[in-house]
Amino acid sequence: MVVLLLGVMTVFMLLGFPMLMSMIVAPILTLLVFFPNVDPLLMIQQLVNGVSVFVLIAVPMFIFAADIMTAGHTANRLIDLVRAFFGHIHGGLAITVAGACTLFGAMSGSTQATVVAIGKPTRNNMLKLGYKEEDVTGLIISSANIALLIPPSVVMIMYCVVTGVSVGEMFIAGVGPGLLIFAAFGAWSYVSARKQNIPRSAKTTWAEKMEAIRKGLLPMGFPALIVGGIYSGLFSPTEAAAASVLYAIILEMIIYKTVSVKDLGHIALSTGAVTATVFILVAGGQALSWVITFAKLPQMLTSALLGPNPSATMILGLVTLFFFIGCMFVDQLVVIVVLAPIFYPVAIQAGIDPIHLGIIVSLQAAIGSITPPFGCNIFTASAIFDQSFTKVVKGLPPYLVILGIISIVMIFVPEVALFFRDLAYH
């Protein structure tokens, strides 16, 4: 059964069929061959159920808000804010990029939007200062992935949809690991720039710092609105998504006047196209996940791989491996829809906190998406910066090593992943 399911999916992908085709055809064939008495129409029901979860409404709204901000001046103000405080130290511009990606990720939840919004205006400046091209690209796409851990992460929303875990708790918990990754990237940027003798920018005065804070104050309202609103109970995650769209419209259309009504229509069309792609993949993933669960493959696989009484460390190690490899080849949302139902029940039975598990999953989604051969963000950067695949991946090894070390820390020190959640909810 496993051979047929995986074999059909592999053949379809190698033949160049869209991902949706392999995700639907493979489970249908599995049903027809091994469960001929099951009505295939149930597959259609599962496709619909996959996109009928209420919390998924937040996904297109967060994407829409991110697209509006990408078209406006929000990103530039965030860059200026971080540069005012870090620009004068060794690796200051690189730290600025990592910090701006972290802040923009806290508003958009989208790695692609972060690459475009932060990468485009900063890349040329880094090259002029003496940074190597591959190092610049590696930094940008690696830092953009912090968006998968800092709320409002679309990956976290999908994990919560599949497992039923609280979106609010996941969002709050993600703040700690996201800041830890930024700090690690910043430390590496400092060491690397000092070693390469990269020139430093002039130190800003306190007047210039205060001006940067003033200009960046309104954009910083996004994370305050999302995290503060959810934590205080003022908003549900879905309501926070709607509020972020309204805030983005007010900021970019009324206050900054960088986005017109005509622009808003084009942005909405772009958001619709991205949302349709995401939802199609989610629907297909739900159908595949249902067949896998119906066939009791999770029990078969976990018992074969983990044995009768697996430890929490063993389970988290296997989760790390499977999600990392899966996200190297397939979109993160699909991997979560397919693999989360397999490992979640076993993890809960072993006493693993579901939020801790979600942070591990989100981190592996981030790592896998920038790992060759098919990490999706590699191709995003290749298209945006007009660089070859080889050039893009050349600058990634230091960041992959850093993220690998942080993964090990997350497994053995769960307090790092749960600090802010426990602080907010316990």
Overall body shape: globular
**Beta-strand content estimate:** under 5%
Count of DSSP helices? 22
Secondary structural class? mainly alpha
What does this 3D model show about the protein?
This protein is globular. It is mostly helical and 426 residues long. It has helices at residues 2-14, 19-34, 41-50, 58-71, 74-86, 92-108, 111-129, 133-144, 154-163, 167-196, 206-217, 221-232, 237-255, 261-294, 297-306, 312-329, 332-349, 354-368, 376-385, 389-394, 397-412, 414-425. Helices cover 79% and strands 0% of the residues.
How are the secondary structure elements laid out?
Elements: H1 2-14, H2 19-34, H3 41-50, H4 58-71, H5 74-86, H6 92-108, H7 111-129, H8 133-144, H9 154-163, H10 167-196, H11 206-217, H12 221-232, H13 237-255, H14 261-294, H15 297-306, H16 312-329, H17 332-349, H18 354-368, H19 376-385, H20 389-394, H21 397-412, H22 414-425
Helix pairs in contact: 1-2, 2-14, 3-14, 4-7, 4-13, 4-14, 5-6, 5-11, 6-7, 6-8, 6-10, 7-8, 7-19, 9-17, 9-18, 10-18, 10-21, 10-22, 12-13, 14-17, 15-17, 16-17, 16-18, 17-18, 18-21, 18-22, 21-22
Summarize the structure.
The protein is mostly helical and 426 residues long. It contains 22 helices and no strands. α17 (332-349) packs antiparallel against α18, α18 (354-368) packs antiparallel against α21 (397-412) and α18 crosses α22.
